[in-house]
């Protein structure tokens, strides 16, 4: 099944998050969405338009851990009902691209503002420099 957003029925939709959010990476989360009518679905949410360092990539481990810790801190401060807004890009059927949003704004924008992520276009991964990774690691301290 092709989940490209050109024909995606969920494009531009907003869903309530039910329960705990699992942080897989700085820009990837596992969430339980309430789709309505007592229907729920676990999805992996890829924060659209941003990229964080990856813990599983050699040389990015510490910066990736810092980004994960930052997301966990953001989640700890946002106990109100969270929402997922579905965005433009979808790469795989089991991954939904969008943003995790609280009353005061979205997680993707916060990660950019705090310096834990960079803005990217779909299909164009960022090549992290040593200076960028070191700056993210310093934020953790």
Structure keywords:
3 helices, 141 residues, single chain, globular, alpha+beta, 31% strand, five-stranded mixed barrel, 9 strands
Overview of the structural elements:
With 141 residues, the chain is an alpha+beta fold. The protein has 3 helices and 9 strands. The protein has a 5-stranded mixed β-barrel with strand order 1-3-4-7-6. Strands 5-9 form a two-stranded antiparallel sheet. A hairpin with an 8-residue loop joins strand 6 (83-86) and strand 7 (95-102). The longest helix is centred in the middle third of the chain and has 17 residues, at 61-77.
When the domains are counted, the total is 1
Separation of the first and last Cα atoms = 44 Å
Radius of gyration: 15 Å
Average pLDDT number:
87
Query: Which outline best applies?
Result: globular
The number of helical elements comes to 3
CATH class (first level) name: Mainly Beta
Strand % is 25-35%
Number of strands: 9
Q: Write out the strand line-up for the largest beta sheet, numbering strands in chain order.
A: 1-3-4-7-6
User: What is the chain-wise order of helices and strands?
Assistant: EEEEEHEEEHEH
Structural class: alpha+beta
The name of the CATH architecture is: Beta Barrel
The level of helicity is: 25-40%
Outline the biggest β-sheet.
5 strands, mixed, barrel
CATH topology group: OB fold (Dihydrolipoamide Acetyltransferase, E2P)
Low-pLDDT stretches are 1-7
